[in-house]
Amino acid sequence: MAKQRDAIRMSDAEITTFLDGCRSMNVASLLKDGSPHLTTLWFAVKDGKYLFETYGSSQKVLNLRRDPRCALLWEAGTEYDQLVGVSIRGKAEIIDAEPRLTELMSHIIRRNSPGLGDHHDQHVAQMVRKRVVISVTPDKIISWDHRKIPARA
What angle do CA 96, 99, 103 make, to 5 degrees? Predict the structure, then answer.
């Protein structure tokens, strides 16, 4: 099984290409009782960090303030031989102060709402009033691409 595991692992370039084609990311944080809290958000990647934005008063932010451990997941495919995904365990940092908040919020919005054009800066300024950016530093990255498994005759 270890050989197949190695065979289906994606390279850094393959992970980047896969994530470039994804819009949504699943985020798991830990509730006060230790049970998982799972949400889906739009995201961006910058300098090896995985970013998302959310309301500063959201449950996930409360969870991450208490315990910065989190997990991220992207997946695709409906048949076993087409399954592709990336799972990351990491530590979250809550960015709620300027100028970094606006810089990273702008990066996220530019990726996910490219049609804003001249309204981009105004939209970002509105978002940072009630929202924060979460930056996740990965501790472990696991990837799989079942399309790499040789077809059986």
Answer: 90
Cα–Cα distance for residue pair 39/26, rounded to 1 Å: 6
Give 69's strand partners: 91
Token pair, residue 62, equals 């409360």
107-116: pLDDT as tens digits: 999 999 999 9
Helices within 9-132 (DSSP H only): 12-20, 59-66, 100-112, 120-127
Overall pTM surpassing 0.90 (yes/no): yes
For 3-12, the pLDDT digits (tens) are 778 889 999 9
CATH of region 2-148, choose from 3.30.420.40, 3.30.1300.10, 2.40.110.10, 2.30.110.10: 2.30.110.10
Hey, where are the domains in the chain?
2-148
Q: Is 2 helix (H, G, I), strand (E, B) or coil?
A: helix
- Distance (Å, rounded) from C-alpha 138 to C-alpha 136? 6
Q: What single DSSP character describes residue 147?
A: G
Q: How is residue 69 written in tokens?
A: 């451990």
Please state the separation of Cα 118 from the chain's center in Å.
26
Q: What are phi and psi of 120, to 5 degrees?
A: -55, -55
Task: Please spell the DSSP secondary structure of 93-107, one letter per residue.
Answer: EEE-STTHHHHHHHH
